[in-house]
Amino acid sequence: IIFGIFGAIPAADPLNSAPRPTEVKWDGTGKVLGHLADELTKKTGVPVTATSVLKSKCEVKLAGVPFWEALETCAARTGTRVRLADGGRAVELVPRGESREVAATSGAFRLVAQQTVGRAPLDSAESVYEVQLLVHWEPRVRVYKMDSAPRITRGHRSRR
Q1: pLDDT of 13-53, one tens digit each?
Q2: Helix axis angle, 33-44 relative to 67-78, nearest 10°?
Q3: E-only strand ranges, 13-60
């Protein structure tokens, strides 16, 4: 009987158990970033602030959009950028300024290219590029292991 009980419990499949992102619904008609920050804090439990840009209009409509995508969309429309605070447990929307941030979101995760270094060794015809990435995830998501020194041996150029 004991073996039958344990046999009936399905094993957790780590590939199919990706964390589901927090979905954001927002109708920003006539609202400002301060309203969005308050609403996101209530809905997600993640402290979101927009201290220096509270009064910036944020007339964006979002329906079931993942948390990071909602922040990126609002930041793009309001001339701000997403910055993490408190060790990644809080989010700030700050003026974009002259920054050229490159970010990508996927569900509960966000990748930001922080720095790129290119080298052209004189004894080789191939150039070498190093990209330093920041990985953000919703604070409610537990991440157990990340490789701090991943190796990518090949890449390709995107044609835009």
Answers
A1: 444 556 677 888 888 888 888 898 998 888 888 899 988 88
A2: 170
A3: 23-27, 48-49
